[in-house]
Amino acid sequence: MYTLILSISCSVAVSVLLKVARRHDIQIDQAIAFNYVMAGSLCWLLLGPQPQALFQSASPWPLLMALGLLLPSIFLVMAKAVQQAGIVLSDVAQRLSLLLPLIAAFTIFGEPASQQKLLGIAIALCALTALLWRPGNRHAESPGQGGGLLTVALLLGVWFGYGTIDILFKQMAKMGSAFPTTLLGAFMLAGLVSFAYLFLRRAAWNVRSVAAGLALGLLNFGNIYFYVRAHQVYSDNPTLVFSAMNIGVIALGTLVGAGVFRERINWVNAAGVALAILAIFILFPR
Predict the structure, then answer these.
(1) Bridge-partner residues for 145, per DSSP?
(2) 240, 234 contact by CB (below 8 A)
(3) Is the separation of the CB atoms in 204 and 30 below 8 Å?
(4) Which among 97, 84, 110 has a CA at the least distance from the CA of 15?
(5) Radius of gyration (Cα) for the chain, nearest Å?
(6) Residue 187: in which H helix or E strand, if any?
(7) 30-62 burial by CB neighbour count: b if 16+ within 10 A, else e?
């Protein structure tokens, strides 16, 4: 059980770090770049990847390049979403991105649709609509929570970005790429893209941002590592891992957002959180 608790905690802690970054003069783009230094190093040390396999002719370089661009990009979108919409809605939008891989399972990977999955998709769409509902846009309730098209676009970006990344990883698994090697390659390319972007912008390096990036990388890797370990520990019950992870992140993110940062959500958003939890229960096999 400790593996699930640690994975959930790391996932929510990433959102918390992104939330407090601005007020502590942390440059998100620099933190994201050094995040991949830490995450890649931990991947190398703990998961035993085989980097030489990346240079074989069968390596899925188009997919790796897509991940190399998407991983740092979605971090920036997530950071902005947390600042604009708050931890609660951003985390739920991320968890609802599971909807996209499910659709891809039907349309790309040829998995047959079931009534249970179609019902779950319908409820997830209703949950997404409720989460994006922002009445009184001209009167935001707190400086960190704005409304309007920007908030909607950011939450949709989180939803679409994380869903697309998940599909790419699933495609890699179908092609036979080993997860540790694929993950290391994605971290390396994402780091190269991030540092190239910073050098082109002639960024003024900030020690505080570097330290925050290393902490972010630790949390980011911890989320993935303990999630994989949970699947190994509960190998005969993957539904437990899937359900506990997603519902745990939503529940803990809601508690942290409302209790620590005093984030306010309207009753429609609260209904969206409830619908999201219901959708996750339905979508994962019994």
Answers:
(1) 142
(2) yes
(3) no
(4) 84
(5) 19
(6) helix 179-200
(7) bbbbbbbbbbbbbbeeebebeeeebeeeebbee
Q: Would you state the structure tokens that stand for residue 119, as one six-digit string?
A: 């019902």
Report whether 249 contacts 6 (CB < 8 A): no
Give the closest residue to 232 by CA, choosing from 285, 281, 278, 179.
Answer: 179
pLDDT averaged over every residue in the chain: 80
The dihedral formed by the CA atoms of 184, 37, 101 and 109, expressed in degrees to the nearest 10:
-20
Chain mean position to CA 225: 14
**Which one-letter amino acid corresponds to residue 7?**
S
* Tens-place pLDDT, residues 118-176: 887 788 778 877 876 766 544 333 434 445 788 889 999 999 998 898 788 767 656 54
- Secondary structure letter of residue 205 according to DSSP: -
Q: Are 73 and 256 in contact (CB under 8 A)?
A: no
Which region, left, alpha or beta, applies to residue 77 given φ > 0 means left and ψ of -120 to 50 means alpha? alpha
Distance CA 58, CA 47 (A): 21
How far is Cα 271 from Cα 69, in angstroms, rounded to an integer?
34
98, amino acid identity = L
pTM above 0.85, yes or no: no
Q: pLDDT tens digits, residue range 11-61?
A: 889 888 888 887 888 998 899 999 999 999 999 998 888 888 777 766 667
C-alpha span between 148 and 10 (Å, rounded): 30
Q: Say whether 147 sits in a helix, a strand or coil.
A: coil
21: how many CB neighbours lie within 10 A of its CB? 21
Q: What distance in Å separates the CA atoms of residue 230 and residue 220, rounded to the nearest whole number?
A: 16
Q: How many residues does the chain have?
A: 286
Q: Give CA–CA dist 283/121, Å, rounded.
A: 7
The tokens for 222 are 């911890």
